[in-house]
Amino acid sequence: MMEVSAHLGQLVTIVIMAIALGLDAFSLGIGVGLKGIRLWDVLKISFVIALFHVLLPLLGMFAGHYMSSILGHVTSYVAGGLLLLLGGHMIYNSFKGDQVQFMNYRSLPGVILFSLSVSIDSFSVGISLGMFRSDLFFTVLAFGFFGGLMSVLGLLLGRTVSQGLGDYGEAAGGVILFTFGLLFIF
């Protein structure tokens, strides 16, 4: 019974982290969507974001497994520290107020640059998760699903709402990751 509860808790944690990472794609998607976007471009960008949200945490998890073998018993502190830094960085960026300028999001380089910029955080989270035994298949699928879903929602919502909401989405994701970092440490 205790093992089922622990496994369920781990799955809930992964889903919450996936949503938190997806909030970055959501918030930046609003900004791109505000400039006007075709539905085909929404699908194209969201697919590439979902793909990057699968590949980058996967690479991060492999790096995390390697680091875990080196660091031994201090891995939870290192993983928590990474999440604290990542969450703090997301919070800082949301209040900084600078607008990120992208290439033409319809071009292949623009789609890749945009997707990489909203997915790079998932590499760091993958490193943290790689230091623990987590369900690899479920983790990368959850990250990809929520990254893609949140980008679709952000891009579509950006067509109709004000730009200020985007900063709050990134801040919320940062607070969630920062909180998990504290939980890993304490």
TrEMBL record:
Statement: the UniProt record of this protein carries the keyword DNA damage: no
Keyword terms: Cell membrane, Ion transport, Manganese, Membrane, Transmembrane, Transmembrane helix, Transport
Membrane topology: Multi-pass membrane protein
Keyword RNA-binding belongs to the record: no
Classification via InterPro entries: Mntp/YtaF, Put_MntP
Transmembrane segments: 12-34, 46-68, 74-95, 107-130, 136-156, 168-185
Intracellular or extracellular location(s): Cell membrane
Protein family per UniProt: Belongs to the MntP (TC 9.B.29) family.
HAMAP family: MntP_pump
Function: Probably functions as a manganese efflux pump.
Protein's UniProt name: Putative manganese efflux pump MntP
Species whose genome carries this gene: Paenibacillus sediminis
Source lineage: Bacteria, Bacillati, Bacillota, Bacilli, Bacillales
Record gene name: mntP
